[in-house]
TrEMBL record:
Pfam families: Arrestin_C. Residues 5-130, 241-343 form the Arrestin C-terminal-like domain. This is Arrestin domain-containing protein 3. PANTHER family: ARRESTIN DOMAIN CONTAINING 3-LIKE-RELATED, ARRESTIN DOMAIN CONTAINING PROTEIN. GO terms for biological process: nervous system development; protein transport. Gene3D superfamilies: 2.60.40.640. It comes from the Eukaryota. Transmembrane segments: none annotated. One of its GO terms (cellular component) is plasma membrane. InterPro entries: Arrestin-like_C, Arrestin_C-like, Arrestin_domain-protein, Ig_E-set.
Length: 350
């Protein structure tokens, strides 16, 4: 309950709640007591406040979104009002949990009193995303209205397809996601569902498929002081940075099963030895630099003279970086070396 007095004028205003969805009606209940000698009017103003913070500085801007004027209240009268103010459906939701950007809303009610200061009441209002409205087709959305921040929505919620390099078997590579409302917006706690589309011209072996998603906020503005002096303020905040390996040839931590057929024609027992190592190659200006590092060694039981087939399992360490085979200046490769009297090399993809 809020009460202001200006001479013989008083108002008592209440709201049912202070959190509303986009497009919802904001119900205001007011009681106005006019003991003055002039008629007065109750006015409403719903406005937005943008705040940007960077390097200890702040930039604030406000914009009136909706204004309304009530009926005149005659002198020496007391009247009660109940009014529903429609919240525009295209306003962006409130942002209150970011250290560099804030989006806030206020409802200001004030009495228009001639020849006197106007008493006013301000209510903080929280705008929540509208209830989810799936697209008619189950994917995408149709909207021609620009977003409140001044950006146009994309034609459909899909990332641009990556052009296929000449000679490659991948014809199309794109990311699609499902819209959860008509404005194609997501907020805290929402789940983004979608698809990764890979179209190949023939049967193709995919070594790995990694999905990376990043979300961040950035502010930047320029303040001018005179004709030639100015200062730029900027800041950035990261919300999330996630990475999912959707498919890979050999996952870190997976066991590598090796089967060896040994034909020992000597008069002594032999003991097979396995060495898993990495090979890094760097290319620049026609030169190459190569480095190798042994990751693990393992021995099998002795094998007597004769022919025998043995199997062993070699654990691949979880902390190994993935193989890199499609870069012209950097390669990350792995080898499994089997040692008897001779060396045998097996290519491993991590």
């Amino acid at each position: 309950m809020k009460v202001f007095n200006s001479g013989t004028v008083a108002m008592d205003v209440n709201l049912e709640k202070t959190g509303f969805f986009q497009g919802e009606g904001l119900k205001v209940m007011a009681c106005i007591q006019n003991n003055s000698s002039r008629p007065i009017k109750l006015k409403y103003c719903f406005y937005r406040k943008h705040t940007f913070l960077a390097k200890g500085n702040r930039k604030v801007s406000t914009k009136d979104l909706l204004k309304e004027v009530g009926e005149p209240i005659p002198p020496s009268a007391e009247e009660k009002f109940t009014r529903v103010i429609p919240i525009p459906s295209d306003v962006e939701p409130s942002i209150e949990n970011c250290s560099i950007i804030k989006v806030e809303y206020r409802l200001r009610l004030y009495l228009d009193v001639k020849y006197a200061s106007d008493p006013e009441i301000k209510f903080p209002i929280v705008i929540l995303p509208a209830a989810r409205v799936p697209a008619a087709s189950g994917f995408g959305f149709e909207s021609t209205e620009p977003l409140a921040w001044g950006f146009e929505p994309p034609a459909e919620p899909t990332a641009p397809a990556a052009p296929a390099p000449s000679g490659m078997t991948i014809k199309n590579f794109s990311i699609e996601y499902d819209a959860i409302n008509s404005r194609n917006t997501f907020t805290d706690g929402d789940t983004v569902n979608g698809r990764i589309v890979v179209e190949a011209s023939k049967e193709t072996r995919i070594q790995s498929l990694v999905f990376t998603a990043k979300g961040k906020a950035r502010v930047k503005w320029t303040e001018y002081h005179g004709n030639h002096n100015y200062r730029v303020y900027w800041a950035e905040e990261r919300y999330y940075d996630v990475k999912h390996i959707l498919r890979e040839a050999k996952r870190d931590g997976e066991a590598l099963q090796v089967t060896v057929e040994v034909n020992n024609r000597s008069t002594r027992s032999v003991k097979p030895k396995f060495v898993l190592y990495e090979k890094k190659s760097f290319f620049a200006q026609g030169r190459r630099r190569v480095g190798t590092h042994e990751i693990l060694k393992q021995k099998m039981e002795s094998i007597a003279p004769g022919k025998e087939t043995v199997t062993t399992v070699i654990p691949i360490p979880r902390e190994l970086p993935p193989s890199i085979l499609n870069c012209s200046i950097l390669k990350q490769e792995y080898r499994l070396k089997v040692n008897f009297l001779e060396y045998y090399y097996i290519y491993i993809f991590i």
